[in-house]
Each structure stands twice: as C-alpha cells, then as structure tokens.
Amino acid sequence: MTEYQSRYFAEQIVLKRPQSSIDGLASAMSGVKVDLNPHQVDAALFAVKSPLSTGALLADEVGLGKTIEAGLVLAQCWAERKRKILLIVPASLRMQWRSELSEKFFIDSVLMESASFNNAKKAGALNPFEVRNAVVICSYNFAARKDFEIRNIPWDLVIMDEAHRLRNVYKPNNVMGNKLKNALSGRKKLLLTATPLQNNLMELYGLTSIIDEHVFGDAKTFRDMYVSSTNPDIRNRNLRNRLHGVCQRTLRKQVTEYVRYTNRHAILQEYVPSEEEEKLYNFISEYLQTDKLYALPEGQRTLITMVLRKLLASSSFAISGTLNSLINRLDDLLKGIESELDMSDFDTYEELDDSDSDTEDDVLTADLEHDRAGIIKELERLNDYAELAKSIHSNAKGDNLLLALEEGFDKIEELGGQRKAVIFTESRRTQEYLLRLLSDNGYDGKIIFLNGSNNDSISKQIYEEWKKRHQNDGKISGSKQADMKAAVVEEFRDRASILIGTEAAAEGINLQFCSLIVNYDLPWNPQRIEQRIGRCHRYGQKNDVVVINFLNRRNAADVRVYELLSQKFNLFSGVFGSSDEVIGSIESGVDFEKRISEIYQKCKTSEEIQAEFDSLQEELADHINEKMVQARQSILENFDEEVAARLKHCQSDTIASLGKFSQWIYYFFMIHGAERVEPLDKWRLRLKTFDGHERIYNLNWQDADEEGDIFLRREDPLYESWLSEALHEELPPVHIKFDYDECTRHISFFDNHPGLSGILSIDKLSYSGIGDEEHLVFSAVTEDGTVVDDEMLNAMLELPAETAGQCPPETESLVKMRQERIAMQQQKIENENKQYFLDECAKLDAYSEDLKEGLQRNLKELKKLIAEKRKTFRASTSLPLEEMLALKDEINKLDEKRKKMQREIYNHEDEIEQQNQRLQDEMQEKLKGNCQIEHIMTISFEIV
C-alpha cells in the first residue's frame, strides 16, 4: 500500500466523529477491556445523544453493568481530551471504581479523601481537586464537605454512582444533596441507580433536577400536577413523555438474547461450636455490651464493636490476635499513652473507618484522667479471654468446611464446572488458619491467597514467576497491586484449586472460570455478598454457580441474619440474585450492617433478638412500596418489543463499526511492516518495537488474553508515533493504481465497473460549536461519469496499490463537486443542530408551562373559594344583617385579592416567557459554530 493510504487510515482512526453516533464511540470501545453488550452501548449513546443536554439518568436493573455504561461515556470524554472528570460514589465503592477504570479502561484516577486533600494543600495546591490526566474519585460525604472547591472546577463530566442517595434533594433540609446540586450546577452529569423511584414520585423530580432544573417546574407544581393526580394512567403517561429524553432503563429479562445467565444453587452448612468456642463467644459478647470500655476509642466504638463481632464470628484465631491489640492499648493507657488499635486483620477496616468519619474530620483526643481501677479490671478480663482464645486449636466451622468443600466440588462437577473454589473470609488470620487446615487435609500446594497486601511467601513467589513469564509481552503494568492481582488470578485459573480471599478478592477481578463460592464468613452487607458472588456469577460464566454458606445453629441472631439475606434479599438462589426493590431499599450497605450490629449489641435474650429482627423486616417491607413499583414500571420501563428492536439495531451497528475500525488499524499497521499471524481469523500482528523486541499485538482484548498477546491501544508509543508521522506528511497530488485482482474480497461494484478511473479529492471538515466533530468529505469524478459513493471509495482505498505518475490538474467539475459536498456536510450538521435546538426548546416550553400552571392553579383555587362564598351569601337571607354585611365584605376582599393575583400572574408569566427566551437565546449562541476545511489529498486513480 501507499503513504496516501497510510494517511487515509490515520485520519479515519483519529477522526473526531459526532459523539452521539456508534462510530463516534468506536474509538473508545476499541480500546477498552470490556465485552460490550448492546444495551450498554445503547445506554452510553443515550447519555451523549445531545450536546445541549446537561446529562442523563441511567437506571438499568442491578447486574446489567451501569459501571461499564458510564465507563464508555468517560472513555469517550477522555479520548476527546476532556479530562476534568469527577466520580462521586459511596465510600465502599471507591476502590472498586478505581480498579475498574484502571483494568478495563486504562484510565488513571486519584482518591480524594481527607489525607490526600490535606497533603495536596500542604504541598501548595490551591485546589486539590485540580488534577491533571486523572479522574478524581471521592465519596458523597467528602464531596459535600468540599463543595466550595468542587464548584470552582469546570468539570467536563461528573458521574454519580448509587445516585438514589440524592433522591430527597427536593427537600430543603437535605443538606448533602443540595450542597452537591448547587456545587455541580451547569456541569454535565451522569447519574447511575437501579432504583430511581423507591417511595415517592418526588424522588424522580429530585434526581432530574440535579441533572437539569428545566425538565419540570418547581417542586410545588410537580407535586400538584403529578403526586396529587387523581388519574395515575394519564399521570404516568405524561411523566413518561417528560422523562423520555433524560432517563433510560433496561431490564435483565430484555437482554437475555445477548447475556446468558446461569443459575445459583445454595448449600447451607450448619455447625455447632465447641464448648470453649461458645464460652469465648459469650464472654466477648458480654464484654462488648459493657457500658464503659477503655480499650475502644469512644468516637469509633460503634465501628470497632461491629468489626470485633465479625472477627469473633470468623474464627477464634481472628479474635485472638485482635484481643492482643486491645490489651496493648490498655497497657499503654496505664502508661499515659493513647495508642491506636491495630485493626489490620479486617481487610476493609480503613474503608469502613473512612466512610464512618466522612461526616466530620475525626481527631482522636486522649482523656488524661483515666480510671486506673477500671482499666486494670478491663485488662484482667481481656487477658482471660485471650488465654481462652489461645487454648482453642480447632474450630467447628473449619472442620465443617472440609465436608462442605467436598459436597460443593461434587455438585460443581455434576453441573459441568471445574474443581475450583473461592473461599471468602473477612479476616486475614482466618485466611492463614484455613491455609493450614486445608493444606493438612489434602489441598497442600493447591491453595493461593488474595488480600489487601499479599505479602505472604506463596504470593511473592507467584508474583516473581508471573513477572518472568510476562517480562517482554507488555502485561506488566508497573502497579504492584494490580500486577499482584493479575498474577494470583492467572495462577488460580491455570494451576491452583482454591483461592482464599478477603474482601480485596471481591473487587475488580473476574473469576468466571470458577463456579464455587464459599462464604466462610457471611457479611451483613447484602451489596458485599452480591459483589462476592458476582466475581463468578457474571457475564461469561458457562456453568451454574454453587454458593456455600455457614450457619451457627446455636446463635439466634446469626440464624435471623441468614434468613434475611437468603429469603428477603434472594442472594443465594435463582438466576439474578438480589432484586432491585430490596437491594435499593437499604440505601447504604454499611448503614444496614450497623443496624444489624445494633441488634447484636443491645439484645441479650433470644426473645429480644427475634423481636428486633421482626421489626427490621417490617422496616424493609415498608420501604418496598408496591404502588411505587408499579409506577416505576409504567413510567420508566419500555415495551419489550421496542427495546428488542433497538438493541438488535445497536448490536449490528456496533459490530459493523468496530469491524471497520479494526480494519483501518490493521491496514495501517501492515503498511508499517507488521505481519499477520496465525490464526488468520483473529486480529493478530507481529512487529518489532522501538527497543528491538519482536512482539505480537492483538486488536481484540479477549483474543489477546487467550493467546498471551499485547492488547493494542492508541496509547502504545509506537502506534502514537506512526500516527503522528502519517498525519503530518505532505502529500502532493499523484496517480495511484489500485489492484483489484490482488484483492481477496469480492466486491460486486468493481466487478460491474472494470477499469474504473477518475480523480478523488478528500477534505476534512472540522466543526466547533455546541460539540466538536470532524468529517472526511469525499469528492470523486470518474471518466465515464459513474457515481461512486463513499462506501465504495473507502473500499477502493483498502485495495493493494502503488503510485504510478503524476495526477492531472483538478477539473472544474471536481472543484464544483467539492464545494457542493462540503456544503452538504455543513447543512447536515446544521440540520442535526436544529433538531437538538428544537428538542431543547420543547423542553423549555414545557418547563414554562409547568410554572404557569402552578400560578393558574392558585388562582383557580381562589376563584373556587369566592364562588363558594357567593353561593353562601345568596342563601343567607335568614342571617342577621351584620353577618351578611361581614360576609359581603369578605367576598369583596377576596375579589380584590383575585384581581391583584391576576395582575401578578400576567407579570409572572411575562417573567417566565422572558426567562424562556433568555435560555433559548443562550442555546442559539451555542449553536453558532465554526467550520474549518483542511485539504487532505487529491489523487487520480484507476482500478486494474
């Protein structure tokens, strides 16, 4: 091929297409490690469909990948160099988002929290949120506390996950919601939630007002028009029409053609603790219920108590080590030192602690007037418990694990899966205990770890071997944490049988090659459990998944927790796991855990435990409002036929667009000396890099993983340098012969027009206005007058070719065609912008009518009152004259009020119209774009 084709392919690869088209997303889609489904591409396109819109609400059901949808929008912004991006998420999801961005989208991020914020301030940063080339991730509470700093950044995109936390923003006393709404006003926002409507239609008003304040009128008018409506069918239809452009929701049942869901099967392994274990549990439970505890810092007592109860339920080994930390703290207190507890055994403690302290900056303050006698007495108690814990060498739950594993493996083999299991625990010490236990019982050498640090000898060896295997294939990212995870997952996939993981194993990794999950410790947070199971029960899982849970039959509270998670949340059986209604009703999983912790803390008898859990179940039932479920279905969910047609179209367009994009990249690399590698049905290319190494690149990330190739991305230095060279090369007009005989493809147009020849001109039209976009404009005049469309010109430029002499001067007909084609493209952009403008005008007109409706509603109510008073007056002949005159006087005053209100309404309506016109004028200013034309090349051609 020729350098002219190299330039053509380079232009196609970097062309900034309209972001609302699938072709516009192709660049972002081709460079991410995500197995895209059509509903995700469809949702991403919905979010970017109009450059005038200020955002969207993506409300797909649980498990459909809203993170992927948002990630695509984010990746598109990133590719367009719009890199001021803020992610506001629940504290417990910050690391998961960071991991997803890094591993799936290759985008760097920074966690903005108290420590990093203060460090940046000390280092001289005026505003720590001003970050270059990295997404900023922070929690809701932290963002609300730093609303001043956030307001002063011109964000290109703000993504808010679990956005239902803001659905009460319409209430003036919702401080956090209103702070964020005001701080982010005018910024483009993407809200993600599976439960946009839980209890009240006002929640829809609240969420849409965060995205765009001009979708509906004010809160009072919305309440009058929709909440108080007496005809729900008409109300729902009107709401559906108004939300059509701002909210999209897809259901799991609508995507089964594209996403294969396997089933979940639950195995419950009950056990009875030994006498010593029971004694230890009761002692520590009683200790935690003591009014005054010196070992637990007062400001963190609730959190630490919850963690201690979880460690106590995990194993005697887990609680034993933590008891030593409590003892050390008391020893220090007797010396006048207030030391911090070591809670590192609980892998997610720092995350919980940060979430807990997000409401205000936590500073531990030492109380220097300790009650020495109380401390000594508490120290004696803890020493006794520690001795008891040390004397316990085996746990009943551990012994039962051996039985449960065999049962699970048998079930998995019956279902066609591999003998592999992920065992989840909340304690690193329990992790070590299970390693010893399983190694001594037939699994020696088959076990690996995954936790927050992975500094054990087995992990270190796996990591070193992994680095050697991948030293020259580009898989080493340089981030030890990410590479350690990759090494452990690869070891588990290829060699090991059992992965023992803490919560770190439940974040950001895909284990769909494994279908047995063991919840050795069961979190109280349903979202955590769903996340754990989702590591295996996910897209790409070919087998049914088995979930093993453990239950202490003697513990009444444990029994009720399991019933709640199993029956109310439906976590362990069926196809889809937890339902939106239930999972959305708990708002925050951490808060739900604290609610359960309170029950453990305050209940001392079985009767009290049963009563408290009955009350908790009633609370959950109250949150699941059947009328609201029906309203949500009617307002937000499209008919299956409509969704099916849309997704089918999206699927075919995505495949075509990505295929075309891959073809351009393939040809571009072949021109630069790459060789096609077997198997030829995969996009594999061999070439030498800058450092002289020969490497195999792959344009498909799944094939790259399977073959051990490097996944080719735009950020590759060699790729970037070649693109830059091609785009800056001067190309004088030449004659090119295209060799159709050498082409392996059969193209009927060229068969029917043998020996086609003529002149082709390619220009690039760059538009900057409400959105930036570029178009290649093809103008071709053939010698025999044959009309050649853009698709055939693209096909011609992909043929084998060689330069063969001079190009004749441009003809008058070619110059005229260029002008016409460029004008047509400009007109097309203008027409699309007109449609965006009309859509926005319709929205603003509806908004204005809402406000006017609110004004008229008050007037109608006053007129109704006057009519009633007049009727009473006409029937008042039996009343004393004084009362009649008083009633007439009241009617006259009300009538004066009506006239005054009528005048004010005219004035208010004028103000509303003026506001509407002002907003439309602002949009018209944005529509005044600028077009630049760059001539790319002129060639004469013949096809031989």
Structure, explained:
The chain contains 34 helices and 22 strands. It has 944 residues and is of the alpha/beta class. It folds into three domains: 21-253, Rossmann fold (3-Layer(aba) Sandwich), CATH 3.40.50.10810; 260-446 and 497-629, Rossmann fold; 734-944, no CATH class. Helix 14 (301-314) packs antiparallel against helix 15 (316-334). Mean pLDDT is 86; it is low at 355-368.
In short:
This is Helicase conserved C-terminal domain-containing protein. With 944 residues, this protein is α/β, with parallel strands linked by helices.
Radius of gyration: 33 Å
Q: How far apart are the termini?
A: 15 Å
Low-pLDDT regions? 355-368
CATH topology value of the largest domain: Rossmann fold
Count structural domains. 3
Question: Regarding CATH, which class of the largest domain?
Answer: Alpha Beta
How does the helix and strand content classify structurally? alpha/beta
- Rounded average pLDDT: 86
Instruction: Count all strands and give the number.
Output: 22
Helix proportion of residues, in percent? 40-55%
Reconstruct the topology from this structure.
Layout: H1 3-14, H2 22-30, H3 38-47, E1 55-58, H4 66-79, E2 85-89, H5 94-105, E3 109-111, H6 114-122, E4 135-139, H7 140-145, H8 147-151, E5 157-160, H9 175-183, E6 189-192, H10 202-211, H11 219-227, H12 232-243, E7 247-248, E8 264-271, H13 275-288, H14 301-314, H15 316-334, H16 349-357, H17 372-391, H18 396-414, E9 421-424, H19 428-443, E10 447-450, H20 457-469, H21 480-494, E11 498-501, E12 516-519, H22 526-534, E13 545-552, H23 556-568, H24 580-585, H25 589-602, H26 606-623, H27 626-636, H28 640-671, E14 675-676, E15 684-688, E16 694-698, H29 701-707, E17 710-711, H30 717-727, E18 734-738, H31 748-752, E19 757-768, E20 773-782, H32 790-797, E21 801-806, H33 812-874, H34 881-927, E22 930-943
Parallel strand pairs: 1-6, 1-7, 2-4, 2-5, 3-4, 5-6, 8-13, 9-11, 9-12, 10-11, 12-13, 16-17, 18-22
Antiparallel strand pairs: 14-15, 15-16, 18-21, 19-20, 19-22
